[in-house]
TrEMBL record:
GO terms for molecular function: endopeptidase activity. This is CAAX prenyl protease 2/Lysostaphin resistance protein A-like domain-containing protein. The chain crosses the membrane at residues 33-54, 74-93, 105-126, 132-153, 165-183, 189-211, 218-239, 251-270. Residues 293-329 are annotated as: Disordered. Keywords: Membrane, Transmembrane, Transmembrane helix. The keyword NADP does not apply. Pfam families: Rce1-like. One of its GO terms (biological process) is CAAX-box protein maturation. Residues 133-229 form the CAAX prenyl protease 2/Lysostaphin resistance protein A-like domain. The lineage of its organism: Bacteria, Bacillati, Chloroflexota, Ktedonobacteria, Ktedonobacterales.
Amino acid sequence: MQEPVSSFSPTSIDLLHRQRFTRLGRWAEHHPYLSAGSLFLLQLAFMRGLGFVLGPVVHTLHIPFLPANLLAEALYAAFVAIMISLLGWWTTTGFTRGLSTNQQVVLCIAPIALLALPVLCGLPTVTNKAPFTVILMSTALALLVGFAEEGFFRGILLSALLPKGIWLATLVSSLLFACVHLVNLSAGFTLNYVVGQLLLAFGTGILLAALRLRTTSIWPGILLHAIRDVGGLILLSTNPKLVQSVPLTEALIVNGVFCAFFILNGTILLRPRKIRELSIVYQLPTALQPARPIPPEDQPAIPPDNAPFQSQFPYDDPAFYSPLDQDTL
């Protein structure tokens, strides 16, 4: 008997496909590569323009790290929200759904252990000497970062590329998510720090994309992303030299190990049997293709019209009956 799709419910499938897309959303749905590339370039242009406009203001007014980034991230989050609204993809990107089944909650256990638990264990040490305002602003900034980056990369980009295949969409959106962290080099961060970010961002992107697709909700990814970032933001505010002075070898080894565990968990979540189920849930073109025709050599032989009739029923064969029954025939 076929195993049911335990992670999904009929309600989740209905919500995914009951939405009416805008004209821009329909265009993006029919041109995955072009729309994903255009949206990514638009996002890069917005980020560069934001830095060009806010940079001199922050430098002139000597605005501290956290308030400056709060302003920039709030504008970035607004940009992402506007793009989702123009596309009509609030349901498609998973913002209108939470975790509605126990199976979906269970799917979050391993990502929580990998992404959130190490940060939560070290958070008391990080926040020990940090002012309350720094903790509060870091938490708010982490939530804005989670909303904006998950909304764009695991929301818009992943949904735009999904018609080309689940794994292709996951890998490309994760690679672009990692590459966008290269802009931190121009913001004054060290090469060692950015290299570690690239590894973590790629592995995190795969894990959160897999979680987003399996749960049909983006909210677990937003919360995990925020928890993952909050400790680093507090350290960048209180002791930035400590964060950026990590040796390159150590950054490669530690972040490489975390990246490998993230990818392993994402691979388990998107194993082949679940890929087939997700293709049906998200109505991907590969799931809607007709069944492959049976080759001629494998087709059952059809007897000619003049062939004698051969019964397929055992009670038409005299050997089927006992000797006593055969005497009465």
